[in-house]
Write a structure and sequence with these properties.
- By secondary structure, the protein is an alpha/beta fold.
- The chain has two domains: 6-117, Tetrapyrrole methylase, N-terminal domain (Cobalt-precorrin-4 Transmethylase, domain 1), CATH 3.40.1010.10; 123-234, Tetrapyrrole methylase, C-terminal domain (Methyltransferase, Cobalt-precorrin-4 Transmethylase, Domain 2, 2-Layer Sandwich).
- The protein is built from eight helices and ten strands.
- It has helices at 23-31, 40-49, 78-81, 102-110, 123-131, 148-165, 178-188, 213-218, and strands at 6-9, 34-37, 60-63, 86-89, 115-117, 138-143, 168-172, 194-199, 207-212, 229-234.
- Strands 3-2-4-1-5 form a five-stranded parallel β-sheet, sandwiched between helices. It has a five-stranded mixed β-sheet with strand order 6-7-10-8-9.
- Helix 6 crosses helix 7.
- The termini are far apart.
- The relative contact order is 0.16.
- The mean pLDDT is 97.
């Protein structure tokens, strides 16, 4: 028996953005009935917006998050051994990128299961594209330290890396801490350092602007509270 495949299915970056998902991805989504997702509730909501052809009673969901016991994860892929295809969904954007799904993908490779990435929105790449900063060499740094004493040091380190390696530095923050991050960046980064704020990417409320710290210090900062954002530092 041939093994099933693991399809990596991107999801919209926010509400009312299902149009950002290609038709062929939605067609593949509708052909599946087993899914691995960070939260089943979010996955169901996304699938509902695509007008699925199968009733939800026929769909199975495995949750993969910080509460998932590591010993339970291998069983999520058992259906592939029986010839069934499985879909891996992210909370928003691309599975496995700033997303816990990477552990499932790594396991699939070890078990000889074909991994099929599908095209969809990535807030990281979309922000980089719109920043005007170096897209030949860049680093995604995930979340920075929360404490202010550690946060300013981390920002300075990224600034130094941007200058030393001519490498664009990309990072994210928990949405309710966006304001503090920007305030800290404007206080501790050099005036000529380039800084990009990209918020609500692909949504109607999208805001993307890149300019020097000196220019940001004179500008009116938009309300970033609880809005998903990507931040970029460049030289």
């Amino acid at each position: 028996m041939n093994k099933g495949k693991l399809y990596l299915i991107p999801t919209p970056l926010g509400e009312n953005a299902v149009h950002t998902i290609p038709t062929y991805v939605i067609e593949r989504l509708h052909a599946l009935d087993i899914f691995i997702a960070e939260r089943a509730k979010t996955a169901r909501h996304f699938i509902k917006t695509t007008k699925p052809t199968k009733p939800f009673s026929e769909l199975a969901f495995f949750e993969l998050n910080k509460r998932t016991a590591p010993e339970d994860i291998p069983s999520f892929l058992d259906a592939c051994d029986q010839g069934k295809d499985i879909g891996l969904l992210s909370e928003a954007g691309c599975p496995g990128v700033a997303d816990p799904g990477a552990v499932v993908v790594e396991l699939a490779h070890r078990r000889g299961i074909e991994v099929v990435p599908l095209v969809g929105p990535s807030s990281i790449l979309l922000a980089l594209m719109a920043s005007g900063m170096n897209g030949q060499s860049f680093s995604f740094n995930g979340y920075l330290p929360v404490k202010n004493g550690e946060l300013d040091k981390a920002l300075k380190r990224l600034e130094q890396n941007a200058a030393r390696f001519k490498q664009t530095q990309i990072f994210i923050e928990t949405p309710y801490r966006n304001g503090n991050l920007v305030e800290t960046a404007l206080k501790h980064l050099s005036p000529q350092t380039k800084f990009c704020i990209a918020v609500d990417i692909s949504l109607e409320t999208e805001y993307i602007k890149a300019q020097s710290i000196k220019e940001w210090q004179k500008a009116t900062i938009p309300d970033l509270h609880k809005r998903p954002a990507i931040f970029i530092i460049g030289k």
